[in-house]
């Protein structure tokens, strides 16, 4: 379980956190082939709030899956934090994700039998962080997202907004190079969504963590430093947003 | 590891009804295997006790006696058997392990009851023994089965004339009344072979010639035993029948006579050198049998003796057959229970994997390796198995304790008298532990298929699962 010595800990010595070259993804359903990405080349910089936007089915989530190393392109290359992840086997990919990538899901995806504290602690257990250090970091990040008093509640005892805060804390606790968030506000009411966006913005500003979102949320898009517009599996536009990073 | 256990335990408790049903199946399997195993263990201990009390652990015979000697035991007598007994009982390796060493004499012949208007005769199979040694052997109860028997005053070292007969032989020879045997009917009409023939004047005459049949001062019924000496000459002795004892098998019961060794030797060897057909060794503990047997064989080889050693399993094959039969039944029951546990756990774990597909995708995305997912579900299977087996063991102890206090008894195969019906769990920790481990491993093995399926799930597909 202890992966402290893993060679896959990326060091952000370059300016590009994610580099895709001609990345294509085709899903097969029986005899039918459905192209989700049609050869995208994209560079996502470090320390930025980057958004991938597009209509439903445009390929946003597929792009995030490739960046998150939980899916492999049918064609092309994916480089994350300077690592050509296509060359890694499944176990090494898992180790790479454990070290470098945090996920925030639309449906929160917390482990239901674990408390908020244990959910947040989980990624640190995966990378073999010593218990005292785990306790310090977990407590700190839960306090940072305003959930200190709720640390020992199970997910079913928390509101939707609180669950997403737990998910954010879980994604950030290991201080990853990249946090990927797929529609993180889609299941929240607007008020809670605003609070969550503000939280992520604050955390990003403090930690300078690279955030990559897939979203429709205009409120969230307003916070973006970089915006990548996807249509039918193709990158059709890259524009710059806020410039306060 | 702590988190792994915590997650596994909480997931089991989360699906409490499903886990309860699966755990109940495991518990039922454990209960059945342990109770039956405990009962079978008690049967084995009881049968072993009865056989060791009767024939000892090991017997030393003249070479060839075991295969060819039963038709003519006299021809296979051990020369100077007392010297052989001394050799055995003084051996420093055997002596500390020994409980009893005693000679026996097998014999056969015709037993006749011609007193009190009886004119019955019957072939018999007899054994001559030392009564005090027999008493000590009958008190052997290493496994505490409650089968230790009190001293039998009907036979005595000081009275060579006394003997016991099988109940069947007593019935055939018309001794039921004089021996006060219950449920032992006298023949209502005499068969042709009995009433149409004249008294066995030859036997009676021979008995009178030997001076054996005239004394009836002890008030016991007497039998005239006709046999042939080693030299082939007819010989007769008188046996004072001091009691009847039911034997487990009817064939033996209808033919059995136990008598003092001296009387048996007198009938077989007459005035010649008295020998013995066997030297019986009863050990303090059955587990020493292989070591003592090996030592005996070494002594026989070193001294160039024409002897062979047999154990009680060879002398009482019925014991071996019963052990094999009950062992087979136990294995069969264990297999059935194992299959039930297997299917129950496979079903439960498959449902768990299906319900937690999204969770599997999440923890895989977070960086848990495939092996970690597999271990998670294997551990859950093992925990369900362990919990069920533990509950089954506790229930088995409770039910076993109740059964053991009921005072039930039964007559096991090959036995003639009731023995306690008990479930022996405390005396067999290996049975309890073995059953527990096997069922836990079966549950774990059953979880392997769904666990592998969970481990092989595509992360993306798992995350899409609702």
Topology:
The complex is a heterodimer of chains A (245) and B (466).
Chain A: E1 16-29, E2 32-45, E3 49-53, H1 60-67, E4 75-80, E5 83-84, H2 90-100, E6 101-104, H3 116-126, H4 131-144, H5 160-172, E7 178-182, H6 190-207, E8 210-215, H7 218-221, E9 226-231, E10 234-240
Parallel strand pairs in A: 3-8, 3-9, 6-7, 7-8
Antiparallel strand pairs in A: 1-2, 1-4, 4-5, 9-10
Chain B: H1 2-14, H2 16-55, E1 58-62, H3 65-68, H4 81-89, E2 98-113, E3 120-129, H5 131-138, E4 162-165, H6 167-172, H7 176-179, H8 192-195, H9 201-210, E5 222-228, E6 234-244, H10 250-253, E7 256-260, H11 261-269, E8 278-283, H12 289-302, E9 307-311, H13 312-315, H14 317-355, H15 357-365, H16 370-405, E10 409-410, E11 419-420, H17 429-456, H18 459-464
Parallel strand pairs in B: 3-7, 4-6
Antiparallel strand pairs in B: 1-8, 1-9, 2-3, 2-5, 2-8, 4-7, 5-6, 10-11
What attributes characterize this protein structure?
heterodimer; A: 245 residues; alpha/beta; Rossmann fold; 6-stranded mixed sheet; 4-stranded antiparallel sheet; 7 helices; 10 strands; 32% helix; B: 466 residues; alpha+beta; 2 domains; 6-stranded mixed β-barrel; two-stranded antiparallel ribbon; 18 helices; 16% strand
Can you tell me about this structure?
The complex is a heterodimer of chains A (245) and B (466). With 245 residues, chain A is α/β, with parallel strands linked by helices. Chain A has one domain: 3-Layer(aba) Sandwich (Rossmann fold). Helix content of chain A is 32%, strand content 28%. Chain A is built from 7 helices and 10 strands. Chain A has a 6-stranded mixed sheet. In chain A, strands 2-1-4-5 form a 4-stranded antiparallel sheet. In chain A, a hairpin with a 2-residue loop joins β1 and β2. In chain A, α3 packs across α4, α4 packs across α5 and α5 packs parallel to α6. Chain A is globular. The relative contact order of chain A is 0.20. With 466 residues, chain B is an alpha+beta fold. Chain B folds into 2 domains: 192 residues, no CATH class; 242 residues, no CATH class. Chain B contains 18 helices and 11 strands. In chain B, the strands form 2 sheets. In chain B, strands 2-3-7-4-6-5 form a 6-stranded mixed β-barrel, surrounded by 4 helices. Chain B has a two-stranded antiparallel ribbon with strand order 10-11. In chain B, a hairpin with a 6-residue loop joins β2 and β3. The longest helix of chain B has 40 residues. Chain B is elongated and about 105 Å long. The two termini of chain B are 28 Å apart. About 1% of the residues of chain B have low confidence.
